[in-house]
Amino acid sequence: MAHAKTSYVCLPCRASYKQPYDRDRERICPRCAGTLVHVGSAFAVPRRRDAAAWRTLGVLLNAGVRFHKSCCGGPGYRPRTLHEVRERMTYAERTGRPFAEALVLRDLP
Asked: What is the spatial distance between Cα 105 and Cα 109, in angstroms, rounded to a whole number?
């Protein structure tokens, strides 16, 4: 039986690739030869020309947020705009909550 595929992205190229998951193998971008980042199987790729969406994605990935399916659906809430990221960054600084944890909150208190 074939293994399910998951998504990997190259942030500089703004490209996404679906490949079988293998924890021990480093994935290389076919365009720039940079390292691909494993983002998970519930990832929706932004359009290549949508620079703001790719900047937002870069912030999420650098903070350690990924797009893995949960038992009852998708990955949960993820910010889609830089404005939403800034709001959650401010909230994290104000409350002392970890940044990655604040990023995935649907509604801020």
From this structure: 9
Judge contact between 50 and 82, C-beta under 8 A: no
pLDDT, residue 74, reads 63
Integer Rg of the chain from CA:
15
Model pLDDT, residue 1: 47
The closest of 47, 51, 46 to 78, measured between CA atoms, is: 46
Q: What is the dihedral of CA 24, 37, 77, 18, to 10 degrees?
A: -80
Structure tokens at 42: 């519930």
Helix-strand-coil split of the chain, %, nearest 5: 30, 20, 55
Q: Is the pLDDT of residue 50 over 80?
A: yes
Q: Tell me the pLDDT of the chain averaged across its residues.
A: 89
Q: What is the pTM of this model?
A: 0.83
- Report residue 3 as tokens: 């293994």
- For residue 80, which of 109, 45, 48 has the smallest C-alpha distance? 45
